Structures are given as C-alpha cells and as structure tokens.
C-alpha cells in the first residue's frame, strides 16, 4: 500500500506535522504490523544504485497530481499537476 509505518506516524503526530489527524486511542507498538501488508508480504525494494538520465526530450516525463490545496491558485484552482521532463 505504500503507507508510513506506525513509528513514523507517531513521530509526525507528536511533532504536530499533520493537520486533521485525530488520534482516538493509544499508539503503541502493537499497531506496528499492518494486516494488509502482512497478507501481501509487502517488502521495500532497494533503489537502483545507478541512475541514468534520458537521452532525448520527452523520452520520459514525471507527473504528480497534488491537492486539494488550501489556497486557491489564479482562476480558483485547487489542484496542481507539475510535469517534469526526465531529460532536463
């Protein structure tokens, strides 16, 4: 699922790094195991040691959709979609 573990979530809550997350019970180490991850035997794969840059423009693009954003952009938009060319 790609979610953060309980240790990281607990740290984020304690440092006030998240808004709107209501803790309704104790955050103990019993929560360290995610049933869905255990069933799927989720494993973090290592990153490739060597990265290669694309040789041509638009050979690969990286796109991310973010939002809704609290502060509206010009035109009243709530979402952002940055697009980066892997060659640049």
UniProtKB/TrEMBL annotation:
Name assigned to this protein: GAG-pre-integrase domain-containing protein
Species of provenance: Lentinula detonsa
């Amino acid at each position: 699922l790609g979610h953060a573990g309980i240790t990281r979530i607990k740290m984020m809550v304690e440092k006030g790094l998240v808004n709107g997350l209501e803790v309704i019970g104790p955050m103990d180490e019993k929560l360290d195991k995610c049933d869905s991850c255990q069933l799927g035997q989720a494993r973090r794969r290592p990153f490739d040691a060597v990265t290669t840059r694309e040789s041509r423009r638009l050979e690969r693009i990286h796109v991310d959709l973010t939002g809704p954003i609290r502060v509206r952009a010009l035109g009243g938009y709530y979402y952002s979609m940055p697009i980066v060319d892997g060659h640049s």
